[in-house]
Design brief:
This protein is α+β, with helices and mostly antiparallel strands. It contains five helices and twelve strands.
């Protein structure tokens, strides 16, 4: 038995050293195989030594058909032969042959032809190694021959035997067998399997001829073995196209995506290709160049619910009316950026700062011609003339870099006391400044060259302050006014003439930005 154990171990090791493997789906495959191995008749029934057969060779062929992924049926034909062992002493004869390959000289032989049908169950058909079991039955036709190949007669046996009529008979028979076994199959390449295993044939004595007039038991009887253990190694080649459930051209055993929809193009692993990553496989995708991010329909074509030319998924304004022109994001164009899209805008060139109505036209609450949003004086009185900022135009409101000279503002001589006639003019100035709360001004006092510079500077500063205090008393905001005296430092005329000195004695309003 040790030799048989070593033989099985070495065979398993050889299989394990193979590198590339191919799992096998049995369904629909036809397998044709050959095997060889060892066998030995056992289970004799007499009460004296009758184990006289050596371990002999056997071989056969098998035809299988897969009916399920892991279930196959098959028929096997086996030819086996063994010989009488070298049992040259009574003790050896009594002990039996055991596990030996040594036969006696001119040894009789035992030839057995078996044809058996079996069902095979593979536990792991998707793996490179798959253990399996099988069972079935068949018929065994055997005979014992003399060393010269002639039929052995019962009276020529070690224990001569006659039938009940006292006549010798040919030692041969036929019986129904029962079969059980197990093994491991390994797939080193596609459609090719290597296997190793063992099985046991049980001789049922059904169909036997060794009955009635021929003893098969008892002293000096023909003792036909009732059991045959067998060890084998074999090779199977499986014909037929590998199963491809989803019809994608990749066999199920290699297909990592076995439920691919029919018509999809697939990669080497059997998984659908999708060049534009839209979720619809190439082959079914009628719009294979769809832009990334677009939602698509069942055919792989971009969806565009508002029919604006920008696909859903990229369209940031998904409910745009059909008549609207849109930008790249699918939103209506608004050329003048007034918040009213072009398709609704009846005033398409509105200045950007203007507030507009629902039609995109500028609003002008005070009807001064300057739109709300740009109008810095939004409550201008009707019919008032305004500047470009929407504020009333006044001769007393200085423009930037263009001071206003208040001619007619006079003071008592060498004093900062306004004469009554000057207050009339200052009342008009106050009214203008009150209308323009956005304007801040500097009141500048100026003198002619009579008197010292220090005196003139002090006098001009006092007179500018007097004007500022008067304007504040008339309602002009104090924070919009400042006063400064310049003395005789900024003349606008010749101080050598009376006319020139009159012009230089003045009050100016200068815009403060």
């Amino acid at each position: 038995m040790k030799k048989l154990t070593w033989l099985l171990a070495v065979s398993v090791l050889v299989l394990a050293l193979s590198v590339t493997t191919y799992p096998m789906d049995m369904k629909g495959m036809v397998g044709l195989g050959a095997h060889g191995g060892l066998w030995k008749p056992v289970l004799t029934e007499t009460d004296f030594g009758s184990d006289f057969w050596i371990v002999g060779p056997q071989g056969g062929i098998t035809l299988k058909y897969g009916i399920l992924k892991n279930l196959a049926i098959g028929v096997t034909g086996i030819y086996a032969v063994t010989y009488v062992a070298d049992l040259d002493t009574p003790q050896k004869l009594e002990d039996g042959a055991g596990f030996t390959f040594s036969k006696m000289k001119d040894a009789p032989s035992y030839e057995n032809i078996m044809v058996e049908a079996a069902a095979y169950y593979y536990f792991l058909p998707e793996k490179k190694f798959t253990p399996y079991v099988f069972g079935g039955g068949g018929v065994s036709i055997w005979k014992w021959k003399d060393y010269d190949g002639t039929q052995l007669m019962s009276d020529e046996w070690i224990y001569p035997t006659l039938d009940k009529n006292g006549a010798p008979f040919e030692v041969k028979d036929q019986e129904i067998t029962a079969l059980a076994g197990a093994g491991i199959e390994y797939y080193p390449m596609e459609n090719l399997g290597l296997n190793i295993g063992g099985k046991f044939h049980y001789m049922t004595r059904l169909l036997t001829s060794l009955t009635d007039d021929k003893d098969v038991e008892g002293k000096n009887a023909i003792d036909a073995p009732s059991g045959i253990p067998e060890a084998f190694v074999g090779i199977n080649y499986y014909f037929g196209k590998p199963k491809d459930t989803d019809k994608d051209g990749i066999p199920d055993k290699d297909d990592q995506c076995p439920d691919t929809p029919l018509g999809c193009l697939v990669d080497a692993n059997g998984c659908p290709l999708d060049a534009d990553n839209d979720g619809i496989c190439d082959g079914l995708d009628k719009c294979p160049g769809t832009t990334s991010g677009c939602k698509v329909d069942a055919t792989g074509c971009p969806m565009d619910a508002d029919a604006d030319g920008v696909c859903d998924g990229l369209d940031k304004c998904a409910d745009t009316p059909k008549e609207a022109k849109v930008d790249a994001s699918g939103c209506p164009l608004d050329a003048d950026a007034d918040g009213v899209p072009d398709y609704k805008d009846k005033c398409a060139d509105t200045p950007k700062a203007c507030k507009v109505d629902a039609n995109g036209c500028p609003m002008d609450t005070d009807k001064d011609g300057v739109c709300d949003g740009m109008d810095k004086c939004a409550d201008t009185k009707p019919d008032a003339k305004v500047d470009k900022s929407g504020c009333p135009i006044s001769e007393f409101i200085p423009e930037p870099e263009k001071p206003v000279i208040l001619y007619g503002i006079n003071f008592e001589s060498n004093k900062a006391m306004l004469i009554p006639s000057s207050k009339t003019l200052l009342d008009q100035v106050a009214a203008s400044l009150i209308e323009r709360p956005d304007v801040k001004v500097e009141i500048g006092g100026h003198c002619d060259s009579r008197g010292s510079e220090a005196y003139n500077l002090k006098l001009s500063n006092s007179r500018a302050d007097a004007v500022m205090q008067y304007l504040i008393s008339k309602g002009v905001k104090a924070e919009n006014l400042t006063a400064k005296g310049y003395g005789e430092t900024q003349p606008i005329a010749d101080n050598k003439t009376e006319e020139g000195m009159t012009k230089n004695r003045r009050v100016e309003l200068k815009r403060i930005m």
